[in-house]
Amino acid sequence: MTISMFQASVPVFIRALNNLAGILEKGAAHAKAHKIDEAVLLNSRLFPDMFPLVRQVQIATDTARSGAARLAGVEFPAYEDNETTFAALAARIHNTVKFLETLQSTQIDGSEDRTISWQSRSSTKSMQGQPYLFNHLLPNVHFHVTTAYNILRHNGIEVGKKDFLGT
C-alpha cells in the first residue's frame, strides 16, 4: 500500500496543532480562574535546560509550517517569535493551520524522493522527502506539542490524554 505524503503530513499537523490550541485554552482558563499571571505559565519549563512553553509552541508551529511547505515546494510565511499571551499563541496556531489548509495533496504527494534542504542552528541539512517527514518532521512536531502539554500538566492544568489526542 502506498502512503500519501500529504495525508501523513498536513492533516496530522493540523490535528496536533488544533489539539494544542485546545490545551492552551485550558491553560489560559486555569490562569484566569486561579489569578495566575499568564507569563508564569508561558515561561514555565520542565527542566532548566529546556525551552519554556511559549518556545515549545513556536517550534511546533514553525516545524509544521516550514516542513509542509518544503515538501510542497512553496514558500512559507515567517512569524516573529514575540508571543507573550495565550491569545497570541492561539493566533499563531490559527495562522499556521490556515496556511497548512492552503496546501494541496498534488503539491506534496510525490515528494518522497525529493531532496529537502533546510538550515538548522548549526548547519545546512538535507534529506529525501519521506525520511524528512517520518524521521524529522513528525517526531519534532509531536515532541514539542507533547512537551507543551507536559509543561501545563506539570503546572496543575487539568488536561489528559483525550485533550492531547483530540478525542
Structure overview:
By secondary structure, this protein is mostly helical. It has a single domain (10-165), classed as Four Helix Bundle (Hemerythrin (Met), subunit A). It is built from seven helices and two strands; from the N terminus they run αααααββαα. Strands 1-2 form a two-stranded antiparallel ribbon. The longest helix has 26 residues, at 129-154. The model has no long low-confidence stretch (mean pLDDT 96).
What's the domain count?
1
Classify the beta-strand content into a percent band: 5-15%
Which spans of ≥5 residues are poorly predicted at pLDDT below 50? none
Give a quick account of the main beta sheet: strands, pairing sense, barrel closure: 2 strands, antiparallel
- State the CATH architecture: Up-down Bundle
Order of helices and strands: HHHHHEEHH
Short summary:
This protein is mainly α. It has helices spanning 10-33, 38-42, 53-72, 86-100, 105-108, 129-154, 161-165; strands spanning 115-119, 124-128.
How does the SSE layout of this entry go?
Blueprint lengths: L9 H24 L4 H5 L10 H20 L13 H15 L4 H4 L6 E5 L4 E5 H26 L6 H5 L2
Antiparallel strand pairs: 1-2
Helix pairs in contact: 1-3, 1-4, 1-6, 3-4, 3-6
